[in-house]
From TrEMBL:
Pfam family, one: OsmC
Organism: Marinobacter adhaerens
InterPro entries: KH_dom-like_a/b (IPR015946), OsmC/Ohr_fam (IPR003718), OsmC/Ohrsf (IPR036102)
Protein name as annotated: OsmC family protein
Segments for region (Disordered): 1-37
Compositional bias segments (type: Polar residues): 7-22
Length: 142
C-alpha cells in the first residue's frame, strides 16, 4: 500500500492513495489553514469508521441480513497535551433493514472490533480506549 502527500500552500496538503484517489487535507485557521479539507486526525478517525463499517456490512451480508442502510457515528477524545493523541473513541452503528436479527448485528460489530478492523485494533494496541454500540432501525415506509 502506498500514498503520497504534496504540500499545496499554507497548511494545506493533497493526499493521494496508491489507487489514485485524492483528498485535500488542511490545518486549522490558527495554524495557517484555510479549512479546505479535513484535518489529518479527522482523516484518521474517518479511516477507522470506514474500516469498521466495511467489516460490519461485509459480515452482515454474509449472514444474509437485509440491510438497507448503515450509518456509523464516531466520537473521539484527544489528550490535552502535545502530542494530542486520541485517548478514547466510541463507534455507534445504526443499522437499518428488514427483519434484522439483533444477535447477528451484535456479532458483526464484535467481530469487527475484536478480529477484523485493522485500524481499530492498531489504535487499541497504541493505548486508545475504543468502545462500540449499535442500534437497529426499521426502514421508513415512505
Amino acid at each position: 500500500m502506498k500514498a503520497t502527500i504534496d504540500w499545496t500552500g499554507n497548511a494545506s496538503f493533497r493526499a493521494t492513495s496508491g489507487t489514485g484517489h485524492s483528498v485535500q487535507l488542511d490545518g486549522p485557521p490558527d495554524h495557517g489553514g484555510e479549512n479546505l479539507g479535513p484535518r489529518p486526525m479527522e482523516m484518521l478517525l474517518m479511516g477507522l469508521g470506514g474500516c469498521a463499517s466495511f467489516d460490519v456490512m461485509s459480515i452482515l451480508k454474509k449472514s444474509r441480513q437485509d440491510v438497507t442502510a448503515c450509518h456509523t457515528e464516531l466520537e473521539a477524545e484527544r489528550a490535552d497535551a502535545v502530542p494530542s493523541v486520541f485517548t478514547r473513541i466510541h463507534l455507534h452503528f445504526v443499522v437499518t433493514g428488514d427483519n434484522l436479527k439483533e444477535n447477528l448485528v451484535k456479532r458483526a460489530v464484535n467481530l469487527s472490533a475484536e478480529k477484523y478492523c485493522s485500524a481499530s485494533i492498531m489504535l487499541e494496541k497504541a493505548g486508545v480506549e475504543i468502545t462500540h454500540s449499535h442500534e437497529i432501525r426499521v426502514p421508513d415506509p415512505s
